Amino acid sequence: MRKMHYGWWIFISTCVISLVGFGMVVDTIGLFFEPVSASFHISRAGVSLMVTFQNIACAITLLFAGKIMEKINIRLLLTTCFTVIGLGFISLAFAQSVVQFYIVWTIIGIMQPFALTLSIPVLLGNWFQKYLGTVMGIALGLSAIGGTLFNPIVSATITNLGWRSGWILEGLITLIAILPFTIFVVRYKPTGTTKPVGYEENSAENAENVSWQGLSFKQALHTPMFYLITFAMIALQWVAGLVQHVSPYIVSINLPLNVGATVVSGIMLGAAAGKVSIGWFLDHFNNQMVIILYAIFGITGWLSLMVFRAPGMLIGSGFVLGLGQGIMLVSLPYFIRKQFGPKNYNNILSIISMFGNFATAIAVSVDGKIFDITGSYNLPLMTNGALYVLGGGAVVISIILSYRAVTARNKLKEV
């Protein structure tokens, strides 16, 4: 019986990190806003400020997270991050002031780039020469499943036992589910005679990888692909900022809040399907056509929200626009690895992701302000459609230019 390649254990580890990590850190925090607000007698905006601090801390840390990840033992780094996150959740069960929430979530924001934003694409990029798009899509797709799975569990705990018990549950799930993998399973990259998955099966690609290890960050700055991918990240992360306004939008067109919540669920399911499917398509079909297809999903989904009023059609629109999110969530880390190589992948991905984080943070406020001024979300919805055209187009152009760069490099070797 053939022994399973260790890369598949890394894949399983990243799946758990995505499912539980994103489920706890990103997808369930909104459940605590109302009970914490009532407990400390502060506004909903005052409570949600902890998310603002989290996002700012995350974006700033991304400036140097890639370099740190290359220098510190990955097991120690991830174990420390998730230990801090898990214990941080538990500490909130004993909070006596909202200030503690601001402090804890700022610290979680500092841990987040290492624990979630970079760990999954970096580990999979190091361990998979073949099937990279597929495994990245599946692992990142589980983040949306995590929200679907843990929201009702945490919600029931808060309802029956109180919000303090909810934080303890979040902390225990994080520590118990993730730490065994970060302590005993995770390895940064293959060493010795161990090679990435698929290495033995494509000698031509192996030879290319040996002779071209990629670009440094400074070298990447001199390529048009860097700016095209960065623009695409900013544009599509700006689009993502409107997701938080979907429920209010549904209410603004005179439909019940439960319909808005269901549309958001449709977006989450669509995002899960989009991440898994785009990864597989990138591994098996023309990459330019794949990006165009998923850009069309994004354009169609967002613009359809303006047109439809029937709940079923709105939910379907949410699912379709969720599919389109696969471009941002899977294809951009995938193409950063493909176009710039492994040499300085961590740092390049980190910096480009930083711009995206700032875009989302700004978009959430700008979209809300536009509604306050106009009384409508039509302008942000139309803007999202346009940004999919521009962002998708930037990715397609980067693919073309990257292909030309590879062709030119191969010709030089022949000479």
TrEMBL record:
Lineage of source species: Bacteria, Bacillati, Bacillota, Bacilli, Lactobacillales
Chief subcellular location equals membrane
Membrane topology recorded in Swiss-Prot or TrEMBL? Multi-pass membrane protein
Q: Which UniProt keywords apply?
A: Membrane, Transmembrane, Transmembrane helix, Transport
Domain named Major facilitator superfamily (MFS) profile is located at: 11-410
Please name the PROSITE patterns in this protein's record. MFS (PS50850)
Compartment(s): Cell membrane
SUPFAM superfamilies the record matches: MFS general substrate transporter
Q: Which Pfam families match?
A: MFS_1
Q: Does the keyword Transmembrane apply?
A: yes
Question: Which stretches are transmembrane?
Answer: 7-33, 45-64, 76-95, 101-124, 131-154, 166-186, 225-247, 259-282, 289-308, 314-336, 348-366, 386-406
Name listed for the protein in its UniProt record: MFS transporter
Q: Which organism is it from?
A: Levilactobacillus fujinensis
Domain of life, per lineage: Bacteria
